[in-house]
Amino acid sequence: MGNLWEKAKLGRICSRISRGSSVKITEEICKESVVPFVRSHNIGDGIFIYEGLSFIEYSAAERIKSVKLEKGDILINMRLSSSLRFTLVPEDIIGGMVNQHVSVIRVKKNIIDPIFLKYFLMWDKTQNLLISMVMKGSVRTTLTKKAIENLEIYIPPMDQQKKIAFILSSLDNKIKLNNQMNKVINEMANAIFQYCFVDFIPFSQDEFRKSELGNIPGCWRIEKMKDIVPVTDGTHESPKKEEAGYKLITSRNIKNNSIEFKNVNFISKEDFKRINIRSRVEKLDILITMIGSIGNTLLVQDECIDYTIKNVGLIKTSSNKEMAEFIFMYLSSDRMKNYIKTRITGNSQKYISLTELRNIPVIVPPGNVIIKFNRLISKLYKKMAQNNFINSNLTNIRDISLSKLVSGKILLEDIT
What we know:
Strand order of the largest sheet: 2-9-6-7
Mean pLDDT: 87
Radius of gyration: 24 Å
Largest sheet: 4 strands, antiparallel
Low-confidence stretches: none
Distance between the termini: 17 Å
Structural class: alpha+beta
Family: Belongs to the type-I restriction system S methylase family.
Keywords: DNA-binding, Endonuclease, Hydrolase, Nuclease, Restriction system
Domain Type I restriction modification DNA specificity: 5-186, 220-367
EC number: 3.1.21.-
Helix content: 25-40%
Protein name: Restriction endonuclease subunit S
CATH class of the largest domain: Alpha Beta
């Protein structure tokens, strides 16, 4: 640590550490009410996740005992998992409330900068310390207020805090911009697919016929997925975890047509080779989650693949490359998402079977239509893949920089 860095327990430098309250899932929670109501799934790794955000009426907000969010508040996911998640309250969520699985940290801003503290909390060493404090001699799976209050924080002078926060935020802002660009590109691709293969606008003059999926152009056909490309899945075993090696991807790692590699498990080279005999992932294959969050898809764009899969569907469109983007878009469509939902089984653990994946009905246009569509869409997805690759590198740089900056291993005077 720098000579001027102080050390203090988090409870001493906060004006408030508290958790939210529960609200019954009734008509009081809806999409068009006025007070944001933040739950644990809205807290990402340093980001706020708007998907699934609920709102409550003013009357419900007045009845519950929950902290009212202010600028600079830090939100923590209280449910303990392989990692904890922290994020700052976004501007448009100020005034909102949180449920009982979310804790709010409000710092004394004359002592510590909220953005600096967010990054300190994201530091692997901090997360491991909090987890060990909770789990020591206990079977708890929820982070406690006492653990948060007793966490020791290193406090640089305020000017250094702000500089560190600026450096790390600059990297995160670039990642955010690339994610926003990918969201726009994906919306463009979806709109093109909807125009061509759901609304059939370019083919409106064709003669249509009835099919199991509704009316389709007369010369188009419907085939089962397994008759177009091979369909398999990853291992169902749990290979021994290693400190380093090849990555083992599960359903939790696949989101928004990308893979989250943070907190992924590693396996040996031998296990990697053994799994790949049946489930080798190649460029232009499609991965689809089969357990938990079912139906999330990824079009593989990597040239070098150092991971294998567990309980994840593998659609081998690499064997029929001209169909890759089309099938990926088809599986991502609302029609197929709804179709997959109706095929989910299981009680305590929801899943979709490999048989169901193999029997997915696919509307197949003539070859020349597929070729024209892929020429356009492949350009969009290549740009998305480039952005994902850049973001992966930026995330690695941020994590390394975060560790060295908030720990004081690299002092600002060493890099200025």
